[in-house]
Design a protein that fits this description.
The structure holds 2 protein chains of 2 kinds. By secondary structure, chain A is of the alpha/beta class. Chain A contains 12 helices and 14 strands. Chain B has a single domain, classed as Rossmann fold (3-Layer(aba) Sandwich). The chains are: A alpha/beta, B alpha/beta.
Chain lengths: ~325, ~350
C-alpha cells in the first residue's frame, strides 16, 4: 500500500503497470512524450508511446481503428471539452461499431480526459459534459474520486473490451491517498459507499465526493448521519446500490458539478423516483447553476456546488420525516 | 539467361497474367451482378430492404484493380458504399445479401444492414455510415500493423465527398508523420451524394486532380482512370509497395462514374422505395453526361479488351457471367428464406 500517493501518479502507475502487462497497450496524445527524456517513452519506446498533432477526430478515430484490429489504445485528450470537436468518433463511432457488426469486432479503447477545471479557466475548459456520454449504449464512463479508484478504474478501463471514457476531475489531481501496490482493478459498474450513514443518502460524483464527505463530517457534529455513495461509474450505472441506500435512509441529496438538466444527478433522480417510490420522502439536487463557468473567482464559486450548499440541502431534506422502512 | 529459359518464363508470366485478368473480370462481374440484384429486390420484393442502400456499380475497376495487389492478411476498410469489397475478399454472397435484408443469417445478424457490412475474419473490420470518419479507423488499422510489425498494409477506400471531411486531413497528416503502411484510395465517382464534385472541391474548381491534396502532406499522389482495372492496379501497386517498404502512405484518386443514384429514394414507410434515376439526370437534367459515362462502363470495356487479347472467348466470358448471375440469385433466395431476428436479440452486442 503506497501511502500518500497523488491522484495523478495513481493514474500514471496504472498505465505503466498495464503497459508492462500487455504489449498491445499503446498510449498517445498531444504534447506528451516530446523528448527522449520522457520516462514513458524511455520505458516503452516510440512505437507504443507517441506524440499526436492537435487532431482529436483522427486521434480518437485512429484509436478506434487500432482497437478494432488488435491494440488497446489509451488516448490522452487532456480536457474533456476537446472531445467535442470529435464527438462523432466518441458518440457515433466507438460505441456503435461492435453492435453494427453483430458482435464481430470490439473496440477496447480508453479516452482519458480531465474535466471541471474550476481554477479560472472560464467558459470552455471547466465544464462537465459526462451526461452527453452516459446515455450512449456501448460506451462506458468512469469518474474516479480517489487515488485508489483512479488506479483501479484505469486498470479496469484498459482491460475492458468496450470503449471507456475515463474522466478525472482536475481539482483532485494533487490529492493524496492510499493506493494498493501491484495489480489493483476496481470493477466498472460498481458504486462505492464512501461513508456509511443512516439519516440521509448523499450521492456525489468526482470532485463532489470530496465536498460531500466534508459536508458529512460537519453534519455528523450536528447529529446527522449521512451516507455518501460514489457511483464511480456513470455508465453502466449501479442503480441498485444507489436505490438501496436511498430506501434505507429515506432522504436523498444528489451532488453534481454539472448544470441541473445536463447532470448525472437528474438521471439518478429518475431512477430513484421509479425504483424507490414510497420509500423516499425528500430529494434535493445540488448542481451547478444554469450558467457557463465564469472566469472571475467569486463568480465561479457562486456557480459551482460547495460544502455549504450540500449542508443546506441535507438540512432541508432532514425537515421531512423519513418513510418507515 | 539462356533463350529457352527466358521464353519459358515469359510464357509462364503470360499464363499468370491471363489467370489474374480472368480473376479480375470475374470479380468485377460478381460485384455488378450483386448490385443489380439489390436494385431489383426493391422492385420485386418491396419492403425487404429497409433504410438506405448505396451501390458500387461503376466502381468495379477501382475496387478490383486496387485489391488485385492485396496480400492475404492486408486490411480492407471501405466506406458505407461497401458491397463490392467483401465480394472480392471471398465473403459468401448469401450472408451478404441476408445482411442487406436484415436477416439472422446476415454477416452481422441483421444489426448492420447494407451500410455496415463487416467480415473481420477476412480482414474487413467494418464501416462507418458517417462520411469520411472511417478514414481515421483505417489509419488506426495501419497503426496496429506498424506496432505489431505484422507486415500488413491497409487499403482505405472512400469517396470524393469524404475528402472534404476533417477526418481525411487529420488522418493523412498523422499517417504521413507516423509513416503508416496505408494506401488511401480516393474513389472519385463525381458526385458527393447529390452534388457534383465541381461544386464542392477546391482542386476541381481550380481544374486540378483531387490527388493534388497529397501535396499538403508531402506524400505521393496520383490520379488514374478508374474505369481501367489494369491502370488502377499499376498505380495502387506502387503505393502498396511504398507502404510495405515502410515509407508511409500514398493517395490514389481513381476517377470513374457512379452508374446508379447515390442511394434508393428516401421515403417514410409505408411508401415504397427504389432506386431513382442518376443525379445527372434527375437533379441536373444532364442525360448527355450520364450516357457518355455509360459508354465507359468498366465491365464492358474490360470485357472487350480481354476478348481482343484472347484472354477470354465469348463462350468463357458468358460462362463467368452466368456463374455470377446464378451465385447472386442463390444468395437472394437464401436471404429471402433466412429468418428475421427475434426482437429480444436487440440487446446483444451492446457491450463486449
Amino acid at each position: 500500500m503506497a501511502k500518500g500517493m497523488m491522484y495523478a501518479d495513481a493514474i500514471a502507475t496504472a498505465i505503466i503497470e498495464e503497459m508492462q502487462r500487455d504489449p498491445n497497450v499503446v498510449f498517445y496524445g498531444q504534447n506528451m512524450a516530446m523528448t527522449e527524456r520522457d520516462p514513458m517513452l524511455k520505458k516503452f519506446g516510440k512505437e507504443r508511446v507517441r506524440i499526436a498533432p492537435i487532431s482529436e477526430t483522427a486521434e480518437i478515430g485512429i484509436g478506434i481503428g487500432a482497437a478494432m484490429t488488435g491494440l488497446r489504445p489509451i488516448v490522452e485528450l487532456w480536457m474533456s471539452e476537446f472531445m467535442l470537436v470529435a464527438f462523432d468518433q466518441v458518440i457515433n463511432e466507438a460505441p456503435r461499431l461492435r453492435y453494427m457488426s453483430g458482435g464481430q469486432v470490439s473496440v477496447p479503447l480508453v479516452l482519458k480526459a480531465g474535466y471541471g477545471f474550476c481554477a479560472g479557466w472560464a467558459g470552455q475548459h471547466s465544464n462537465v459534459i459526462y451526461h452527453t456520454m452516459m446515455g450512449i449504449p456501448g460506451l462506458k464512463v468512469v469518474v474516479p474520486s480517489t487515488p485508489a479508484d483512479a488506479k483501479g478504474l484505469m486498470a479496469a478501463a484498459i482491460r475492458d473490451d468496450s470503449p471507456v471514457v475515463y474522466l478525472h476531475p482536475y481539482m483532485l489531481t494533487l490529492d493524496k491517498g492510499e493506493v494498493p501496490d501491484g495489480e489493483y482493478v476496481v470493477p466498472i459498474g460498481v458504486a462505492d459507499i464512501k461513508r456509511a450513514g443512516t439519516d440521509v443518502t448523499i450521492v456525489a460524483i468526482g470532485w463532489m465526493v470530496k465536498k460531500a464527505l466534508a459536508a458529512a463530517e460537519r453534519l455528523a457534529k450536528e447529529g446527522i448521519s449521512a451516507e455518501v455513495v460514489d457511483p464511480r461509474t456513470l455508465a453502466p450505472l449501479d442503480v441498485a446500490t444507489i436505490v438501496n441506500s436511498a430506501k434505507k435512509t429515506g432522504r436523498v441529496v444528489l451532488v453534481d458539478q454539472a448544470p441541473r438538466h445536463s447532470s448525472a444527478a437528474a438521471v439518478i433522480a429518475g431512477e430513484i423516483a421509479e425504483h424507490a417510490v414510497g420509500c423516499v420522502n425528500a430529494l434535493r439536487m445540488v448542481t451547478a447553476l444554469d450558467a457557463p463557468i465564469p472566469y472571475s473567482e467569486p463568480l465561479e464559486n457562486y456557480v459551482v456546488p460547495n460544502e455549504d450548499k450540500i449542508v443546506e440541502a441535507v438540512k432541508a431534506v432532514m425537515a421531512h420525516e423519513a418513510v418507515a422502512a | 539467361m539462356p533463350q529457352k529459359t527466358a521464353k519459358r518464363s515469359a510464357l509462364r508470366r503470360v499464363k499468370t497474367d491471363s489467370n489474374r485478368l480472368r480473376w479480375m473480370y470475374t470479380q468485377m462481374v460478381r460485384i455488378r451482378e450483386f448490385e443489380e440484384a439489390v436494385k431489383r429486390v426493391f422492385i420485386e420484393h418491396p419492403g425487404v430492404i429497409r433504410g438506405h442502400s448505396h451501390l458500387g456499380d461503376g466502381a468495379e475497376a477501382s475496387i478490383v484493380g486496387a485489391l488485385s495487389t492485396r496480400r492475404d492478411t492486408d486490411f480492407v476498410m471501405p466506406s458505407y458504399r461497401c458491397h463490392g469489397y467483401p465480394i472480392v475478399l471471398g465473403t459468401p454472397l448469401r450472408n451478404m445479401m441476408a445482411e442487406v435484408f436484415g436477416r439472422r443469417d446476415g454477416l452481422c445478424h441483421g444489426f448492420g444492414g447494407s451500410m455496415h457490412l463487416a467480415d473481420p475474419s477476412r480482414y474487413f473490420p467494418g464501416t462507418s455510415g458517417i462520411i469520411g470518419q472511417s478514414i481515421a479507423h483505417a489509419t488506426g488499422a495501419a497503426l496496429t500493423a506498424q506496432v505489431k510489425k505484422s507486415g500488413q498494409i491497409v487499403y482505405c477506400f472512400f469517396g470524393d465527398g469524404a475528402s472534404k471531411q476533417g477526418a481525411f486531413f487529420e488522418s493523412l497528416n498523422m499517417a504521413a508523420v507516423w509513416k503508416l503502411p496505408i494506401v488511401y484510395v480516393l474513389e472519385n465517382n463525381q458526385y458527393q451524394a447529390y452534388t457534383h464534385f465541381s461544386l464542392e472541391d477546391a482542386n476541381a474548381v481550380a481544374g486540378d486532380p483531387l490527388s493534388k491534396k497529397a501535396e499538403a502532406f508531402s506524400i505521393p499522389g496520383a490520379t488514374v482512370d478508374g474505369t481501367d482495372p489494369e491502370a488502377v492496379r499499376k498505380v495502387v501497386a506502387k503505393a502498396a509497395d511504398r507502404a510495405r517498404a515502410g515509407h508511409g502512405p500514398s493517395l490514389v484518386e481513381t476517377k470513374f462514374y457512379r452508374l446508379s443514384a447515390h442511394g434508393n429514394v428516401i421515403t417514410v414507410p409505408p411508401l415504397p422505395t427504389q432506386f431513382p434515376e442518376h443525379e445527372a439526370v434527375a437533379v441536373y437534367g444532364n442525360r448527355k453526361e450520364f450516357e457518355h459515362w455509360k459508354t465507359k462502363d468498366p465491365i464492358k470495356r474490360f470485357r472487350a479488351r480481354l476478348l481482343k487479347n484472347r484472354v477470354l472467348t465469348e463462350a468463357s466470358a458468358k460462362r463467368i457471367e452466368a456463374a455470377a448471375r446464378a451465385e447472386v440469385e442463390d444468395a437472394v433466395q437464401f436471404a429471402l428464406a433466412s429468418p428475421l431476428p427475434a426482437p429480444e436479440e436487440a440487446l446483444q452486442y451492446v457491450y463486449a
